Structure formats: C-alpha cells, structure tokens
Amino acid sequence: MNSIAQAVPEAALQAIRKLIKEHGFGPGDALPSQRDLAVQLGVSRASLREALSSLSALGVVSVQPGKGVFVQAAEESPGFAWPFAAQATPLDIFQLRYALEGFAAGLAAVTLTTDDLDRLQDNVEAMRQVLKAGDFDAAARLDFEFHQRILLASGNQAMVSILSASAEVFLESQKLPFIRPERAMETWQEHRKILRALARRASAAAQKTMQEHVRNAALRTGIAFVMPAAP
Q: Are 16 and 34 contacting, i.e. CB atoms less than 8 angstroms apart?
C-alpha cells in the first residue's frame, strides 16, 4: 500500500470534497461542525484541521474561527490536460518532487559552487522578466532549469538519473501552476526564497523552502496533498 497516498489527512481531504459534491453544498453553505466532521469521517481533529487548511488554501472552503467552516467555491476539475496519465498522475509527480527535490536542495546547500549560485541568480532574474512579459511557456522552462540545476548541484547521480529519464514528465508538471496567471509571480518569489537559503548554505532551510514551494505549486494547480507525520 502507498503510505503517502493513504495518509489520513489526505483521505479526509478527499472525503470532504466528496461530501460537498454529493450533498450539494454551495458557496456560503456551512459544513457540519469540525467535531461532527471528525466523527463522521473517522479521523482525528488534527488530521481534519490539516485537511481543511489545504482546502482553504485551494479556495474550496473558508474556516472562520468561532463560526464554522463554509463552502467558498464550487469544486471544478483542474483546467489542464495531463498527457502522462499512463505513467503517473500529477499528484504522484508532485509528491515525488516534494521528497526528491527537498532532499536535493538540502544537499545542494553545502555542495554548490559560486558559479552554481550565479547561474541560479541569473535564472531567477530571467524568470521575473518573462513573467512580467506574460510568457508562461518560457517561465515553465526556466522553472525546470532552476530545479534541474539544484539537482545537479546536489551531486546525487541517482536523483539526476531519475530527472533525466523523466524530464518530459517533470517539465509538464512545472507548466501546470502557470494555468493561474494571477498567481504566477508566486513561483518567482518562492525561487528567490530558495536561492537565499542556498546562498546562506543553510541546508535545513533550503530543504524546507523547496518542499513548501513544491506543495504551493501543487496548490496553484488545484492539487492538495499532505504528508504523513514523522513516526
């Protein structure tokens, strides 16, 4: 069994989506109380809160302290075509990237060279320029290059091989967040934050900011996922 896919908060998130759809909840409607939802779904309050936090970030619900949880918008299918369905879902790829690229960024913080940092800085500046011009295809390619350079700088050849073997799938996943142009600059802002952590040689911060970036990119695509808590 895939322990990530079966994480309790992720199961709760999908169950809430199903509840909204099957019971015809519309914008402004109140969901059952968090206590009742936790009992109904058979999950802990902590897992429920994490699921609601992800749904709130997606704009599906609004959590109002002291008042309740309200449907904010009707769910829609993500507005993109995914050409690699036979290999893996977008959720699979974002979860892989979360694990792989977060670790790679932590390694790269202590192994990358001054030249690597200069090239990453050039990449970040180039992304700012193409986003200002509204060229989202160019932004996706620069996004891919940014992540590729960090993987290469990590020095882990096994991870580089995975990227090389699935380059088209990774690149396609990096196009997805740009389906929401109004949030495109968030990618640049997050890259800049990752770069700052790398420049400080802060391994833990680089890993954390990369993982946050990948999860945020998934959210911009309309995909929410939560990671299982450490044992």
A: no
Report the share of the chain in percent with pLDDT over 70: 90
Work out the pLDDT band at 5, boundaries 50, 70, 90.
very low
Averaged over 213-225, what is the pLDDT? 87
Neighbours of 212 (CB within 10 A): 15
- Using DSSP, state whether 14 is helix, strand or coil: helix
Closest CA to 28 of 64, 4, 66: 64
Domain with residue 57: its CATH number is: 1.10.10.10
Cα–Cα distances in angstroms (integers) from residue 169 to residues 86, 88, 123, 142, 215, in the given order: 11, 9, 21, 15, 17
Task: Show the domain range for 46.
Answer: 8-71
Shared-domain flag, residues 156 and 213: yes
Is residue 79 one of the residues assigned to a domain?
A: no
pTM value > 0.85: no
Q: What is the DSSP letter of 58?
A: T
**What digits encode the pLDDT tens for the residues 64-74?**
888 999 998 65
Statement to judge: residues 202 and 163 lie in one domain: yes
65 belongs to a structural domain: yes
One domain for residues 98 and 206: yes
- Clarify whether residues 196 and 96 are in a common domain: yes
Q: Is 70 exposed, middle or buried (0-12, 13-18, 19+ CB in 10 A)?
A: middle
Position 58 pLDDT exceeds 80:
no
Strand partners, 173: none
